[in-house]
Amino acid sequence: MRIPIALFAAALFSGLFQTNANASAINQDAQRDTLYATVTVPLIDDTLTSHILTQVKKGTALSVIDINAEKNSGVRFLVNDGKNEGWIFGKYLTPSKEEAEKVHDFMMEKHRAVRNPYKGGLATDCDFSPYEKPHFPDNEMPNPCNALYLNISPSGLKKIDDYIALADSTLINAFVIDIKDNEAPGFKAEAMKKFSPTSYSRAGSTKEELYRQAVEKLHAKGYYVIGRITCFKDNYFAKDHPETCMSSKADGKPYQHSKSYWPSPYSRLVWQYNVELAKEAVRKIGFDEINFDYVRFPDRLTKIDGLLDFKNAYSESKVEVIQRFVRYACDELHRLGVYVSVDVFGESSNPGYTTAYGQYWPAISNVADAICAMPYPDHFADKAFGLTRPWNQPYRLMKAWGTQTKGQQEKAATPAVARTWIQAYHVMRSVDAEGIPNDASYIEKQVRGLFDAGLTGGYMTWLSSCSLKTYRAQAAAYDLDYPALSPVEDGKTFITTDPKKVAQLKKETVRNKEALREEKEALKVAAKAEKAENKAAKAEEKALADLQKDLEKAEEKARKEAEKAGTETEGDE
Question: What CATH code is carried by the domain that includes residue 21?
């Protein structure tokens, strides 16, 4: 629905649109010709395809041309920066130049001491102003969100009924399903056809229906469904668009890292491709959330950083551009009523420095809906947090890491939900040939360590094979109501090591899960009834307004006829 600027103030005042704190300022002067950008944001010239024309810097003066109201995202302004014309969300605009140029010192102070030893950028390059986090009544994010991971192989989607049966016997309430991994595209998406023909040719021709059926079954049983997309590690897109890749300054050829070519996170074309793919997956398949992985530059590049051309058109630091991509993705996907989560390395929560690959925890957490770290125990070095062979001490390791991370959460003005990937696979042999097994107790110890540290947003299981056999062996851990458990005092007493407790939990879970389903169904019915009631109220208001208009028209017509009759009478005399 597009409305004239002259009507915007009245509409905003009446509560028709919801925006952030800038709304009141814009409302007071909605008909001004000039507004100012409060943060550096993309200028979108095609809202249907989320195409980025250019970038508008913080404090830029913008001439207002038009306004467009959007269901889930407030309003967008059509503006001109003196050279280009495009759309910017109203939450990033203010009529005050002084307000636009203001820096949130109360937040920035927390980041000034952070070092930049690995060329990832200064923490203060990022924006820490409050970011409005959405809530979609028709799409509730579970709290906590306990998810099983599924890949796109036949062992995953084709056996969805078996995974549902397993989840039904536990407190699992969500699933993560791959949409695109590196060299593993899912269904034949139009976005792939347009941006990455190689991905399109390698995607499964029958997968779209398989996805749709799986997600429909999951939704029918009340599960929250997350679609996972690998972003900046993409060999197929790199093959189709070598001009977007990080390349060697010596010969100009794309640089290969870890057997893969990486499109640069600085490339806005790569941004658009991944977001368009996400939007298509939401519309066609029905995902409730999009999870972006590999939202980073390659790691271990510090020694050769100066030898590479990162295609940095806007002279941004790595931490800066990663945060800006996350904000762009959130803005575009929130329009569809879905949430956005971002995967990060466990190292990114280190409070002392920004990472070489561009992930700085508070910056990403400040913008994303959920931040999903991957602190897999076998990825930690020996003696990490003072622990010998920390991968064999999952509770102590996760509690120590989680405590550090909780501190980083507090450095974001609007922190995301902290939902953590846990290690569901066996400790890698290359790390420790005698690593402890990935049984139910290994899962329980990780999750309880996280919850005891204050990271209570839930967990997602990383098991690349998504083996049903392994998940079934771990089921007792997925059956635990972690928020209700008392903190572990001695670091040794765990429920899944006691067969009697496991049996008792199984009985309770069946009862509790059924009660939860009934409660959720009742809430859905109530929400539907409220929606119908609101719709009826609006229809009644419209009918009354139409009736009022008809009465006014009838009165006007009668008045004119009376005037005409009076004139004719005077003429007769």
Answer: 2.30.30.40
pLDDT of residue 553: 82
Q: Pull the structure tokens for residue 227.
A: 């679609």
Task: Please classify residue 4 by burial: count the beta carbons closer than 10 Å to its beta carbon, then call 0-12 exposed, 13-18 middle and 19+ buried.
Answer: exposed
Query: What Cα–Cα distance (Å) separates residue 149 from each residue in 55, 203, 279, 450?
Result: 36, 20, 21, 19
Domain check: are 91 and 218 in the same one? no
Residue 85: both structure tokens together: 């014309």
In a domain, 69, yes or no: yes
Does 542 reside within a domain? Answer: no
d(CA 35, CA 62): 5
- Kindly state the tokens that stand for 107: 């937040």
DSSP 8-state class, residue 378: G
Residue ranges making up the domain that contains 15 = 2-104
User: Rounded CA gap, 212 and 286, in Å?
Assistant: 8
**Global pTM value:** 0.86
Put residue 479 in one of left, alpha, beta given phi > 0 → left and psi -120 to 50 → alpha: alpha
SS3 state of residue 130: coil
Which pLDDT value is given to residue 367? 98
Which pair of tokens denotes residue 311?
């295609």
What is the mean pLDDT, run by run of 10 residues, along the chain of 573 residues? Answer: 44 39 46 87 96 97 94 92 96 94 81 95 95 94 98 86 97 98 96 98 92 97 98 97 96 91 97 98 98 96 92 98 98 97 97 97 98 98 97 97 97 97 96 93 97 98 96 97 90 81 66 63 65 72 78 81 68 51
Nearest residue to 438 via CA among 479, 528, 508, 378: 378
- Return the half-sphere exposure (C-beta side, CA atoms, 13 A cut-off) of residue 524: 11
Residue 516 lies in a domain: no
Task: Report the candidate in 132, 133, 273 with the shortest Cα–Cα distance to residue 194.
Answer: 273
Q: E strand or H helix at 543, and its extent?
A: helix 499-572
431, two tokens = 């790390």
Report which residue type is found at 303.
K
Q: Tell me the C-alpha distance between 273 and 199, whole Å.
A: 12
What is residue 508's predicted lDDT score, i.e. its pLDDT?
A: 64
